[in-house]
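quick one, 425 residues, struct below
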Amino acid sequence: MSKRRKRGIITEDILGDLADNEVNMGNLAGMSSDSASDIADFGYNSAIGHDDPFSQKTSREKIIFKGIDLIHPNPMQPRRTIPTRVRQYFHSSAIEDMQYFFDMWLKEINLERQENFPLRAYLEGKETQRTADVENIDEEIGQISSAPKMGTLQAALMQVVDLAASIMRDGLTNPISIAQVGSSQYEIETGERRWLAYHLLNWQYPNTGWDKIPSRQLVDGVSIWRQANENNVRADLNAIAMARQFALLLMDILRDEKHFDPFDAFENEKDFYAQVANGTVYRVPRHQGEKLLNAMNLENPVQLRQYRSLLRLPYDVWEWADDLNWTEGFIRTAILSKAENDEDKIRLAYKQTKLEGYTVTNDTVYQELLRKSPSKNKSSKPKYTYKHFSKTLGDKVYNYLTNLSGKDRENTVAYLREMLDSLES
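---
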């Protein structure tokens, strides 16, 4: 039995703000049907998903080849494959637009590296700077020259390039999952990086068959719960992606009782997810905590609150943390615990970006901010605020409750519920 199943009463029900597959074309017939997407079909009752355990057998069609120009990413996907700085060059999935996009991404990397990026060498498995000393890997470490650290733009592209090289060498072993939107367009549920790899190969090797990608078409539309399962099976979502995931799932849970504006209603994508940033207004409903924890592969409802808190980050910190793949623990201890206001958060985060070699737009504005002294709270009086409670007492209350058992827990829960009901009235 998992730790979550042993917990008994879910305490975020009482203290709401604590929460507040690529196909090898030569072996298509032998492909396993038990992908993460298939397993996820046993999932949850989403507005666009199935709660029927037999739906996995009926919700999919056979593997088909679709033109990569007819497919586009899901803009709400929690994982961001494309770094913030080059997202401005992405206009559409049309072949010409995607070639322009990759060309601009490559130019930005060349500026970051101060030399040309050897794209073809990586794709074709030729020697590059990172493999120059490969014959000496068994020598003493001091005798091997280390490759220079990659910038964030190059590191993100390398994930696509390495995947493209693998596909070119071995074929696709796991098709992407798509859902039809409109008469002839398709949206990606899982496989955005694979789709980008095909566009990259089509750009570099035109008219050689990379303009169509093996796809599994979903008849029930894109499901955020299947998407969450896929994302968390891979277990490499950064903190911002996890915050997006939390927001999407909670909005889906609350869709019948709360109104949420659509993604394209916001100028900045963070504001879409921040619609559920207020844990008092958008509480995790009773008996839904376990569902959220399971979908996000978390153990403790306090983690839901911690990821929700990231929805209140300043825009700049949100983007930098996403591009640099910061963890929730790092953001909490290195930035949030030391900051008194948003300016402090930006200053501390900017300082960290410089330590990691990240290139920030409008650098002079942040340099001036860095020269300022951090805010000092000179008052010695206790701060009766939500922030103070969540940092000093929230986790202690939760941990205390988890150590209670039997009648003691029931009586304490009842006492707390009465106290909260009294406050709310």
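The first strand starts at residue 60 and ends at 67.
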